[in-house]
Amino acid sequence: MEQVHPPLALPGADTTEALALALAPALGAGDVLLLEGPIGAGKTHFARALIQALMPEPEDVPSPTFTLVQLYDGPGFDIWHADLYRLGHPDEAIELGLEEAFETALCLVEWPERLGSARPQGALTLRLAHAPGGKDGREVAFLSGSGAWRKRLAALDLQGAVAGVVPAGEKARHG
Ligand SMILES: Nc1ncnc2c1ncn2[C@@H]1O[C@H](COP(=O)(O)OP(=O)(O)OP(=O)(O)O)[C@@H](O)[C@H]1O
Ligand SMILES: [Mg+2]
Fold first, then answer.
1. Which residues, including other chains, have CB under 8 Å from residue 143's CB and lie 6 or more apart?
2. N or C: the chain end with fewer CB closer than 10 Å?
């Protein structure tokens, strides 16, 4: 697994959303996006924005904290949103049907560390981390995966998408 994009600064929840919106159109059946980062890093926030961007109709996207998996009937493919924090053993992921979903659906997986050796090879990993020495809420996104992802991401302007977000405070000041 290698870094496939320069780190992206995410100074607030709006920019996490902007990153999800920029990535969404490039994803489809058979793509797996693993969402890493500590509790409260914004993994669900990111997944929610991405799923809502892909759904043809407005859709409520609850956190799969307790259900482990939420399914969505996406545009031509299923979308699986999983939160494996409460997974007891990697075998349970197979029982959930995740291995098959990795091949056929678009899968967004929070706490992928729980997959152990069932972690899919071709996945894109997005890691959300608190910016060192940064103010509260400032984060950095790291993207890693197989080399094929580097090319796919190069076709998107992710940096432009997050840089174009006007922070809520600024919007209020400028009207
Ligand atoms: N870049 C960001 N900077 C600051 N706050 C953010 C950022 N992105 C998301 N948030 C906020 O962080 C909060 C927690 O997000 P979220 O519930 O998505 O975390 P999570 O990573 O899914 O946590 P868990 O591991 O418990 O599932 C939300 O209120 C969200 O708005
Ligand atoms: Mg979550």
1. 3, 4, 5, 8, 124, 125, 126, 127, 149, 153
2. C
Structure tokens at 22: 């920029």
Q: Is the Cβ atom of 131 under 6 angstroms away from ligand 1?
A: no
User: What predicted TM-score, i.e. pTM, was given to this entire model?
Assistant: 0.94
The percent of residues in the chain predicted with pLDDT above 90, rounded, is: 85
Which residue reads 């080399």 in tokens? 147
* C-alpha separations of 100 from 64, 81, 82 in Å: 19, 14, 14
Q: How far is CA 68 from CA 32, 38, 110, 112, 126, in A?
A: 16, 17, 9, 12, 19
Is the shortest distance between the CB of 114 and ligand 1 below 6 Å? no
Nearest CA to ligand 1 atom 28: 42
Question: From atom 31 of ligand 1, which residue's Cα is the shortest distance away?
Answer: 13
What pLDDT digit, counting tens, does each position of 66-121 carry? 999 999 999 999 999 999 999 999 999 999 999 999 999 999 999 999 999 999 99
CB of residue 31 inside a 6 A radius of ligand 1: no
